[in-house]
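Exam revision sheet. Question 4 asks you to relate a sequence to its structure. Input first:
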Amino acid sequence: MSRSSYHPGANLNPAKDYRRGRRIIAEDPDWYLTLVPRLSKLCLQSIIKNFEVRQMFEELKPSEKEFVQEGLSTSLPLDVTANWITDGVYWKRCCEGRWDLCDVSHYGNSWKRMFFERHMENIIELFIPEVTETNKVLDLVPICKNYVKRLDITQLLPPIKEPQTEEEEDGLELLGNNEGPSIDHFNFNILLSKLTNLEELHLVYRVKQCGMNFEWQMFEMTDRDCESLATALKSCMTLKLLRLHESHIDDKKCRLLVKHLLDHPSLRKLDFSYNLIGDRGTRAVAKLLARSKLETLNMCCNEIREHGAKAIAHALSNNSTLLSLNLRLNRLGDEGGQAIGKALLNNDNNTLLHLHLGGNTLTAPTAIALAKVIAQNKTLKGINLSCNNLGVAGGKALEEAMSYNTNITECDIRQTEVDEQSVSFINQVVWKNKSSEKKKKTQENKSK
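Answer key, structure tokens:
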């Protein structure tokens, strides 16, 4: 109601018409003085709308900063938000708005770290050589380098092949070139040296969901890929874990990669599982084991035979840092298995905690050699000999050795043709050792 419609003689009973009891009658009948926001809130909303100015943001109280973070648009440029907005609700909103699954515990409980790691991973996984601009990656580095500690790359795309006419294909056949150009992928040499906090790199050279376009070349690194990656790894001085699996790495590529890792100052975990590495590549890895401070080595599911196993054993006999060795699903045979056993009897080796030799065509001689280790070695905590043909004699040797052991809390002898009585006795000793270790840890915690 406007002032022109007000009549002095009208009934001013507030119970009948509360609007006529107002001292100020507004054009908007729903207007209330109590609905006017505080000036401080209006200021914060102004900061939200004009965040790119952001001079006042650093001077706000923590509660006021949180209010601003809840109202900011998640589409603001990263060069604006990266260095001004600390870890908190804003980065949580960015993550949950972009990805369905967001387990922040995998990122040190840091939403900001999760966002930048996954954002970088997505860019690399969708990078198409000779199509995607490298600046799309490089421009992000100054913004995210302080927050990226791990990259888990689950695919690497090859260049796009131009369709060829029948005449071009016939011409290639006449030249004897049926394979076409080698397929290269993202060049890590332009990136890794710039990520000054990177500690873990997980890589697999493959194309996800390739469908009917499947080609074997989509699932392996090329020679040029290997050269650029090897150089990049050498320059990434903070790297602690390298996992390069399911990428058809053969002996040649393995030796090149290891050559650049020999004097790496921080590498502690190496995973070359599910590749095509044979004895020559394994000898290079053994040299790395002798010269580095590796704590975990995983060579599962390769093509390692007795000569490669002997090279690993030789390095292991003088090693004082390795904690876990996984040689599962190779072809070590008894010569390789016994060499590993003899190496663990060396007095210089007193650090290995876990040994996995499952699926290596091992028989009773290897079981007997490892039984000596179980009886004498006071460091080993777990041993896996599953899916080997150890037989009754091998089982008896392990049973007798376990009767003297108080340290091993894992001894997997499933599918090894070992007698059930031996299996039962070994499992009882393992259970007893587990209980003793648990009780010991409880007492230690109480004493603290």
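Marking note for examiners. The longest strand covers residues 150-153.
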